[in-house]
Amino acid sequence: MGSRNLKSIGLSLMALGVAALVPVGCKKAQPIALTCNATPPAVYAGEQVTATATASSISTRKYTNVIYNWSGSGVAGNGSTAAIATDAFDPGSYTAKVEVKEGKKGKEGAKPRETAECSAKFTVKAFEPPTVSCSANPSTVKPGETSTITCTGASPQNRSLTYTYWASAGTISGVGSTATFSSAGAPTGQAGITCNVADDKNHTATADTSVTIVAPPPPVQRVQELCSVSFARDTRRPTRVDNEAKACLDQIALDLKRFPDARAVIVADSNAKEKQITAKQEKVAARHKHAKVEYFDRQRAVNLKDYLVNDQGIDASRIVVTTGADDDQNVQNYLLPAGATLEGDAPGINLVDETTVKPEGHKPLPGRQHEKATSTQG
User: Fold this and answer.
1) Tens of pLDDT along 200-246?
2) Which of 110, 144, 257, 333 is the most buried (most CB within 10 A)?
3) What's the mean per-residue pLDDT of the chain?
4) Which residues of 183-218 are buried (b: 16+ CB within 10 A; e: fewer)?
């Protein structure tokens, strides 16, 4: 059947309302599409970003070739991925661009549907400043002593840190996170110390601490042993202040005048025989209310004080009268500087209750010698 006949048959069928069978041709190829992304989307300068391009609707024909062209600051592409170096980037938003082309080799992108492009955006964050804290150990020193200063710095981005120090008094030296503060030459009181830390981006932080310089305690005041007095020479008046005793007391008075803050401590003893006499008198006094009891050591101490007060003009409050535990008839005298104590220097002493012992003055000999002395004075 000829072509005319076929055509006429087709027209006839259409006239009868029957659809003609028309041959179907090949579908048109879809345009190439491209999407991009950057990982990680936010970095600090110096950290690498990877950009990835994903193409779709690429022709599967065996002669098809696909090429990627990347552009942007620091972008180095290799096919569908690119590495982005951010070392020189300032904080801000950045874009890596890529264009993809397909087609026969050497003719990629000849047709509009064979080309696509996209952008991958990322952010370079500003570096955070470092943080720092510092402490002093010990925090209290004496003049001339040292203290260790410990500085703890941290960078959120692990940047390298540099430490410096400053002190308001004294001197401080050191490298790294520790330094030594010396209080030599500094006045007493609080010395302020500042710890500084800086990263390689010139971001800084400071922290303060202090060291208190305290005055050294005053030197320990020691009790000074002065002259001693013996009452063994005058057996009839064993508590009398004789001329030799006065010579000692005169020297003590000079010492007290040279050191107006010092006191004199008188430590008087009695021997075993005198203690026996006192013990017997105490037994009698226990039965007889008005019986006399003689305490030789107490009387000696009170008599010496009386001479210092009335003959040398020493304030009575500056003289302490006590008794000791030695077996003799001596009195040992001490100079007690302000702030000093007798502990350890004169053990076993007891304060004398001066209200119970009255000074005897220049006690004369009893009997005829007393009468002779009276007539001579008259």
Assistant:
1) 989 999 999 999 999 988 777 788 899 999 999 999 999 999 999 99
2) 333
3) 87
4) beebeeeebebbbbbbbebebebebebbbebeeeee
Domain 224-366 has CATH 3.30.1330.60: yes
Q: What is the pLDDT of residue 104?
A: 85
Count of CB atoms within 10 A of residue 241's CB? 26
Sheet of strand 75-78: strand arrangement: 33-39, 49-56, 81-84, 75-78
* Measured torsion, CA atoms of residues 173, 174, 179, 183, in degrees rounded to the nearest 10: -20
For the domain covering 33-125, report its CATH number.
2.60.40.10
Say which CATH architecture domain 131-213 belongs to: Sandwich (2.60)
- What angle do helix axes 296-310 and 272-287 make, rounded to 10 degrees? 100
Per-residue pLDDT tens digits for 275-292: 999 999 999 999 988 899
Domains 33-125 and 131-213 share a fold: yes
- At 277 the pLDDT is 94
The secondary structure of residue 364, as a DSSP letter, is P
What is residue 13's three-state secondary structure? helix
Helix (H) or strand (E) holding 151: strand 146-154
Intra-chain end-to-end CA distance of the chain, in Å: 195
* Every domain of the chain and the residues it spans: 33-125, 131-213, 224-366
DSSP string, 332-348: EEEEE-TT---TTTSTT
Structure tokens at 55: 């193409």
Nearest to 85 by CA among 125, 43, 53, 56: 43
The bridge status of strand 204-213 relative to strand 171-173 is: unpaired
Contact between residue 161 and residue 198 where contact means Cβ atoms under 8 Å apart: yes
CA atoms within 13 A on the CB side of 369: 6
Q: 184 in helix, strand or coil?
A: coil
